[in-house]
# Entry
Amino acid sequence: EEAELARRHALHMLELSTQAVSEKDQVATDVWRRRYAYLIDDVRAALNWAFGPGKDPATGVSLAAASAPLWFALTRMAEFVRIAENALAAMRRDGIANPLREMSLCEAYGHALWHVHGAGEGVQAIFRRALEIAEAAGGDADQMRALWGLWLIANTAGDYRQARALAERFGAISERGSHAVGTLHHRMMALSMHY
# Structure
């Protein structure tokens, strides 16, 4: 019964992580963190099981993507780097074709890498992959998140012309819809123009 119980546990952690993400913007950050911090050890155990030999990498990929905000809220980016690497490797190795999950993982992985290792070509490549998927399969919000990551890296790396171009591209997308990101765009442009 162990394998079936482990599978059910992983699926339950996926359900709880998805629920947590849906509530993230509805309550204060500290309240959200206190409400869901207790999940982290169970999520870790479920991920370790899912990515184990002969287990359930598809569930692991979904759980890694869904639980990313929790790892960030608990400032465990270094641990999430390993999780994201395992998930992206499983997608390639096991032929798990889920572009939106890959895009979500790339975005979270890029930010985790930036926090842990700083700006670099590897981080840019991850955000470029997220943008590529967002342009093909995602929506405007997905593209803006990937562009914001690329903008952040360009600023950190001192490529201010590129940062300005990315901020302008972000703004053009935000104007297409009813996205409440006008203030963020203005801050991106102000910082890019300042540098």
Notes: The mean pLDDT is 92. Residues 75 and 112 are 10 Å apart (CA to CA). Residues 2-23 form the longest helix (22 residues). The two ends are 60 Å apart (CA to CA).
